[in-house]
Design brief:
- The chain is an alpha/beta fold and 435 residues long.
- It folds into three domains: 87 residues, 3-Layer(aba) Sandwich (Rossmann fold); 198 residues, UDP-N-acetylmuramoyl-L-alanine:D-glutamate ligase (3-Layer(aba) Sandwich); 134 residues, Mur ligase, C-terminal domain (Protein-Tyrosine Phosphatase, Chain A, Alpha-Beta Complex).
- It has 13 helices and 21 strands.
- Helix 9 packs parallel to helix 11.
- It starts with a strand and ends with a helix.
Length: 435
C-alpha cells in the first residue's frame, strides 16, 4: 500500500512512517519544517522522500494520515481533500498494527519513552522484537512476533490499541485540552486496560493507577511500597547509575544497575525487567543488557565541555521537570544547577502554572523562552505567556537564540535544556559560548 504522512518529522509520525516502510509499504511525507530535526534520521536512512512544497503528484490510491500539529485549514491537507484521497487517522493505523503482532503497549503520563526503550533494548538483543519509540525510533520485521509500542494518551489515541501486555507507568493530569478532568483520564486508561489480552504491569505507587478496575485482565503492581507484588529496595546512586534490589513477594530476584538517574528511572527499569521476565529472559541476561542501555534521543543526554555539563532532556510537564532536576541534584550535588525551559503549549502553561513554578524553583537559576506551539493559537489563551511562570520565580529571565549570551556567566555549572519542542539551536549557541 501507499501512505502519505503529513507532519512526517513529528516524533510519532516519523516513527509510524518508518514502521510502515519496514512492513513493505511505499511511504512519502510532507513537513513545514525544512531544517533538520533529530526525528528524521530514520526517515533519511530509509530514503523516505519528504516534500516541502505543494505541487508534487500523489497517486490516487494513496492513504493519507496527518499529525495533530497539522491544522484542518493547512494548505497541503486542503489539497489532499480536494484530490479526494482516503484519509485515515494516525491512531487507527497504529491500532491496526497492534493486531498484527503480540504487542507490548507502554502507556503513562511520564516515562513511556524510557520504559519502552528499555524493554526494546533487552528483547531486541535476545529474542527479537519490532518497536515504536516516540522519539523518531521505529523498526519492524514481519518475522518478529513481538511489537514494543510507546502508547500516547494524547487525544485518547491508545483506545484503538489492542495489546497482549500493557505497562502503565503513572497517571496524572496532562493534556487537559483533551480531557474533562482527571477521572476522564483514568477512565481512558481503563479502556486500554480492558483492551489488554494477557496482563497489565502497573506502578502501584501511583494512586490513580490503583483506581483502574479492568473487568477481565489481571494487574501486576510494582514500586517502592510494600503493597506491590514487585518491590524495589536499597536504591542508591553510584558512579555507574542507579543500583537497586528487586523482590517478588518478598523473594529476592537480584541486584540491578542501570546507567540512568532518579527514582523515576528505577521504576521505569523495574517495569522493563518484569516484562522481560514474562518473556522468559533470564535475570542474568537482563542485568547484562541493562548495563549497555543508552536512553532514547533527548532523554537526559549529557555532554561535558570544559567545566560545564550540558543536559538535553524532553521534560515538558511539571512532574518531568521536577524529577529531572532532582536527578541532576543527586548526581551533581556540588554543581550550580541552571534550568533552561521552553514551554510548548499555552494550555499546559495555563493549567499547570503553579506546578511549573514549584518544579523550576529546584534550580539555582531559571531561564524561559517564549512559548513555542504549533497546535494552539495564542489568541485562544488571552494573557498566557511565559511570564505567567517566569514572573513568580526570583531572578528568572527570558532567553532566546539571540540572547544566549546571558548564559556566559553560567560556566562551571550544569545547564539543563528542557522541552518537547526543538531546543538544539539554544544548546549549540551555548556550546559556541563555551568554545
Amino acid at each position: 500500500m501507499k501512505y502519505y504522512c503529513l507532519g512526517i518529522k513529528g516524533t510519532g509520525m516519523s516513527t509510524l512512517a518508518q514502521i510502515l516502510h519496514d512492513l513493505g509499504h511505499t511511504v512519502t511525507g510532507y513537513d513545514d519544517a525544512k531544517e533538520y530535526k533529530f526525528t528524521q534520521k530514520g526517515l533519511d536512512d530509509r530514503k523516505i522522500k519528504i516534500y516541502y512544497e505543494h505541487n508534487h503528484a500523489i497517486d490516487q490510491d494513496t492513504i493519507v494520515t496527518y499529525s495533530v500539529a497539522v491544522k484542518e485549514d493547512h494548505q497541503e491537507l486542503q489539497r489532499i481533500k480536494e484530490m479526494g484521497l482516503k484519509i485515515k487517522k494516525y491512531n487507527e493505523i497504529m491500532g491496526d498494527i497492534t493486531k498484527i503482532f503480540d504487542t507490548i503497549s507502554v502507556a503513562g503520563t511520564h516515562g513511556k519513552t524510557t520504559t519502552s526503550s528499555l524493554i526494546k533494548h533487552i528483547l531486541y538483543h535476545t529474542i527479537g522484537c519490532n518497536y515504536f519509540i516516540g522519539a523518531g525510533d521505529g523498526y519492524a520485521n514481519k518475522k518478529n512476533k513481538l511489537f514494543v509500542m510507546e502508547s500516547d494518551e494524547f487525544n485518547k489515541h491508545f483506545i484503538t490499541y489492542y495489546p497482549k501486555y500493557s505497562v502503565i507507568t503513572n497517571i496524572e493530569k496532562e493534556h487537559m485540552e483533551c480531557y474533562k478532568d482527571l477521572n476522564d483520564i483514568i477512565s481512558t486508561f481503563e479502556v486500554l486496560a480492558n483492551h489488554t489480552r494477557e496482563e497489565i504491569i502497573a506502578c502501584g505507587d501511583n494512586e490513580n493507577i490503583r483506581k483502574i478496575t479492568p473487568t477481565k485482565t489481571p494487574i501486576i503492581y510494582y514500586g517502592f511500597s510494600e503493597n506491590n507484588e514487585y518491590q524495589i529496595k536499597n536504591e542508591q546512586i553510584t558512579e555507574k547509575g542507579e543500583n537497586f534490589d528487586l523482590y517478588q513477594n518478598k523473594k529476592w530476584l537480584g541486584n540491578f544497575t542501570v546507567p540512568l538517574y532518579g527514582k523515576h528511572m528505577v521504576l521505569n527499569t523495574t517495569a522493563a525487567i518484569i516484562i522481560c521476565m514474562k518473556h522468559n529472559i533470564e535475570i542474568e541476561k537482563i542485568k547484562e543488557l541493562l548495563l549497555t542501555f543508552q536512553n532514547a534521543k533527548r532523554r537526559f543526554v549529557e555532554e561535558k565541555i570544559k567545566d560545564s555539563i550540558i543536559i538535553d532532556d524532553y521534560a515538558h510537564h511539571p512532574t518531568e521537570i521536577k524529577v529531572t532536576l532532582e536527578a541532576i541534584r543527586a548526581k551533581y550535588p556540588k554543581k550550580r544547577l541552571v534550568a533552561v525551559f521552553k514551554p510548548n503549549t499555552y494550555s499546559r502553561t495555563k493549567d499547570f502554572k503553579d506546578e511549573f513554578i514549584q518544579s523550576l524553583k529546584i534550580a539555582d537559576k531559571v531561564y524561559l523562552t517564549e512559548i513555542d506551539c504549533n497546535r494552539e493559537k495564542q489568541e485562544d489563551y488571552e494573557g498566557v505567556t511565559s511570564h505567567t511562570i517566569l514572573d513568580q520565580i526570583k531572578d528568572a529571565e527570558i532567553i532566546s537564540e539571540d540572547t544566549i549570551n546571558k548564559l556566559e556567566n553560567e560556566k562551571n555549572s550544569v545547564i539543563c535544556f528542557m522541552s518537547c519542542a526543538y531546543v538544539n539551536h539554544l544548546i549549540e549557541g551555548y556550546k559556541n559560548l563555551l568554545k
